[in-house]
Design a protein that fits this description.
The chain is of the alpha/beta class and 265 residues long. It is 35% helix and 24% strand. Strands 6-7-8-3-9-10 form a six-stranded mixed sheet, sandwiched between helices. Strands 2-1-4-5 form a four-stranded antiparallel sheet. The N and C termini lie far apart (61 Å). 37% of the residues are buried.
């Protein structure tokens, strides 16, 4: 495996009884990049993540994470990764800070309190750190969940559909966190069924369909697979997401957009 490749997958096969989920999956993920695995529900995205995180053994093929084989060297793989599933794994009874301290102590790390405070600041949760997680919004819970997964500074993180069930504001919060992770040198493998999410975040995109990667590349490379775009002059209208954020996201009650909308009502 090349030195700048964090994840190396070749010929991955996996079946559940008579159902073939993966049929020879191949891809590489460069260190410090965001790689989006795009596919519909049931395409096999979570199966790939479970294999790469050593929670599931493949029927055939090889996979290496940070230079370690997922089958023969599972302990070394686990030391170099972190996994965030589709639902935030946080304790609602504890505060945000207590959740972080708990994970740091379970991993026998020194200075758990300082680690927690640093992560709360990094993820924009410092003001909410003393509140019980039960009071957090969906986006805040997901940010806390990702922060918990970063305790110990793993070089590779798997995010399995991290924005499932979030509102538009929550999605944007998580997108910012994911981009910051890559900017800091963390390798991110992101599974998603949302096209705009892959387009917004990923350095490279792989489309999983029928148990195989049918195409992989940068967004620019994927665009070249289609006929050249026609130039047409149209009136650009704001999207519903832009309208929602302009109104709900406004901090100033006298904001012109919000005021105009209220006057119309």
């Amino acid at each position: 495996m090349e030195e700048n490749v964090a994840i190396h997958v070749r010929g991955l096969w996996k079946s559940y009884q008579d159902l073939e989920v993966l049929k020879g999956v191949d891809f590489d993920v460069a260190r410090g990049s965001i790689f989006a695995l795009l596919g519909s529900n049931g395409a096999g995205k979570t199966t790939i993540v479970r294999i790469l995180s050593t929670l599931l053994k493949p029927d055939a093929g090889t996979a290496r994470v940070s230079g370690h084989d997922v089958v023969s060297q599972p302990a070394q793989v686990r030391e170099s990764i972190s996994l965030t599933g589709q639902f935030a794994a946080v304790d609602e009874i504890l505060t945000g800070r207590e959740n972080l301290i708990m994970i740091a102590e379970l991993r026998h790390l020194k200075g758990a309190g300082k680690l927690a405070d640093d992560l709360l600041e990094r993820f924009g949760l410092a003001d909410a750190g003393g509140r019980r997680v039960a009071t957090y919004s969906g986006g805040m819970r997901r940010r806390l969940d990702i922060a918990m997964s970063l305790i110990g500074d793993p070089p590779v993180i798997f995010l399995d559909e991290p924005t499932t069930g979030l509102d538009p504001e929550g999605r944007l919060e998580v997108w910012k966190v994911v981009q910051n992770l890559a900017d800091s040198g963390t390798t991110v493998l992101l599974t998603t069924q949302y096209l705009d999410e892959a387009e917004k975040l990923a350095d490279r995109i792989a489309i999983l369909n029928g148990g195989t990667i049918i195409v992989s590349g940068t967004l620019a490379e994927l665009r070249k697979l289609l006929p050249p775009a026609k130039v047409e002059y149209v009136e650009l209208q704001p999207s519903l997401e832009e309208i929602f954020l302009a109104i709900v996201g406004s901090k100033d009650p006298n904001d012109s957009v919000g005021s105009d909308m209220r006057e119309q009502r």
